Recover the amino acids of this structure.
């Protein structure tokens, strides 16, 4: 029991001790809790104080990470580039090695070529010396050719002037003959027109030779002869060959250009500025090229005699201004259709057809047509416009020879009047050799350019399928009647020359047609007159061509007297 009491006492003492320790521990725990609260407050204060710095450090950290990633990407790219450069360097090393080998080869080749170059250079030097000698000889030859060519041109100019003087003194009507080339439209009887473009040139030339008549030009120097060859079957069945030889003042082959034709008549056309009356008319059957010769085509190289003559007249008058002359020009365009004169330049709004009459002035040799539109001319382009207008108004119809055939005679008249105003120096270029003291002198010239209607027989005048109505028959009859009247006048002029020698005054039937009456002064000696005979090259037109050539020969042999210059004082 004592032991138990002792244990109990120890237990109670231990309990008391523990209670005290527990009380002490509680008091210490409270103190620590207060210290923890204080520490927590301080920590919160420190967190708040360093939150901004932490955020900045975090942002800086993220930026550093981003930069690190970019650097890593750049490093990756650089590594790839480095690998590529290494491969390229390896390739270049191989190329350099190959080129080094090639250079060695080229060096040896260069050495060999240099030896060849030296040899060739020696040859070149020799050739250069020879070339220099040849160039010197060529230059001397070209100089000689130039001199000879100039002399030839001067000789040709002198020849033309002397020829013109001889013809004027003879008083003849000059006649030129022009043969047109074979055209593609002439081949339509042999081959369809739409297949012509597909044929080779050799085949086209063969076809042209097949349809062309045998025409030769033996005079290769002065070009004054033309020969036609024909063959036919006689009554006994034998082949009969005939040769027709004709000579004129000038013969133009099919290859002749418009410029070459005008070159021969340019001095004649220019004479109107010197105070002469000039008449140039185109004659020939339908389809022989009369309208092309007189009016030409749309390009400069194909321009006809009318626009070229007008352009030359304008050039001459412009030059003569420096010699103290002033000119005024005017033009008119008419046609004679069924023996009736029509004004081709009449106003478009004109509803009444005026009656025109032909008037001749025996004192001046001038010919006028009443109530005809006269247009002042200021430039060659204006004349081209008038030609286009007149062409659109001409009477045309389809014939066997030409689908669009002129059925009327057209006459373009250019009148020029000049007055000397006494300005500038007078020299040899003055056509009248007048001095300034002769101021007031006047000259009047006239240029008639005539495109006659086609001459053909009535039985060949109409195309297959065309209706030979009364109007077409009447047209052809009037055309042939007027051309026949022209032949009668030419014949009468020839007879007058013979009758005049015997003192007999021969009547000339100018009034038998409007055409001959209009051309009276051109045929009676008051004009410088030229007829351009146009011929078709086709074999089917051979007889018509021979008829035209015979008529032209009769014209060429007709004496009409010497033209007079129209110059008068004011």
């Amino acid at each position: 029991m004592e032991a138990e009491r002792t244990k109990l006492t120890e237990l109670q003492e231990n309990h008391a001790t523990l209670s005290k320790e527990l009380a002490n521990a509680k008091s210490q725990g409270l103190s620590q809790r207060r210290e923890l609260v204080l520490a927590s407050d301080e920590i919160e204060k420190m967190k708040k104080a360093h939150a901004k710095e932490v955020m900045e450090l975090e942002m800086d950290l993220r930026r550093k990470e981003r930069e690190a990633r970019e650097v890593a990407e750049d490093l990756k790219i650089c590594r790839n580039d480095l690998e590529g450069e290494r491969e390229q360097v390896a390739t270049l090393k191989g190329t350099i090695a190959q080129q080094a080998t090639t250079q060695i080869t080229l060096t040896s080749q260069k050495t060999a070529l240099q030896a060849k170059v030296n040899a060739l250079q020696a040859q070149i030097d020799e050739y250069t010396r020879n070339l220099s000698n040849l160039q010197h000889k060529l230059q001397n030859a070209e100089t000689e050719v130039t001199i000879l060519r100039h002399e030839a041109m001067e000789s040709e100019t002198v020849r033309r002037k002397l020829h013109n003087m001889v013809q004027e003194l003879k008083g003849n009507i000059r006649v030129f003959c022009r043969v047109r080339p074979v055209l593609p439209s002439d081949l339509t009887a042999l081959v369809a027109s739409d297949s012509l473009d597909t044929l080779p040139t050799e085949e086209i030339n063969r076809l042209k030779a097949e349809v062309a008549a045998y025409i030769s030009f033996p005079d290769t120097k002065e070009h004054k002869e033309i020969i036609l060859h024909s063959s036919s079957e006689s009554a006994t069945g034998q082949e009969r060959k005939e040769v027709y030889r004709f000579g004129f003042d000038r013969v133009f082959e099919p290859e002749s250009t418009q410029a070459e034709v005008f070159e021969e008549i340019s001095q004649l056309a220019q004479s109107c500025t010197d105070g002469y009356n000039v008449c140039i008319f185109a004659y020939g059957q339908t389809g022989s090229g009369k309208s092309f010769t007189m009016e030409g085509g749309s390009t400069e190289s194909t321009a006809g005699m009318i626009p070229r003559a007008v352009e030359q007249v304008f050039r001459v008058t412009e030059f003569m201004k420096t010699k103290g002359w002033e000119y005024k020009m005017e033009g008119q365009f008419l046609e004679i259709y069924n023996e009736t004169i029509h004004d081709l330049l009449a106003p478009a709004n004109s509803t009444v057809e005026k009656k025109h009459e032909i008037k001749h002035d025996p004192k001046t040799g001038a010919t006028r047509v009443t109530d005809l539109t006269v247009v002042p001319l200021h430039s060659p382009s204006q004349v081209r416009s008038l030609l286009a207008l007149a062409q659109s108004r001409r009477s045309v119809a389809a014939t066997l020879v030409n689908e669009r055939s002129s059925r009327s005679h057209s006459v373009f008249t250019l009148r020029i009047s000049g007055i000397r105003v006494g300005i500038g120096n007078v020299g040899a270029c003055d056509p009248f050799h007048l001095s300034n003291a002769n101021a007031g002198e006047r000259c009047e010239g006239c240029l008639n350019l005539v495109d006659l209607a086609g001459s053909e027989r009535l039985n060949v005048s109409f195309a297959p399928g065309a209706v030979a109505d009364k109007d077409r028959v009447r047209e052809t009859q009037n055309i042939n009647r007027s051309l026949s009247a022209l032949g009668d006048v030419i014949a009468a002029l020839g007879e007058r020359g013979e009758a005049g020698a015997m003192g007999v005054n021969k009547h000339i039937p100018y009034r038998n047609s409007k055409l001959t009456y209009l051309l009276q002064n051109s045929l009676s000696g008051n004009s410088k007159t030229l007829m351009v005979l146009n011929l078709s090259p086709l074999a089917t037109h051979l007889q018509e061509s021979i008829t035209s050539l015979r008529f032209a020969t009769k014209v060429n042999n007709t004496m009409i007297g010497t033209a007079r210059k129209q110059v008068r004082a004011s």
Summary: The domain at 171-421+439-457+468-557 is CATH 3.40.850.10 (Kinesin).
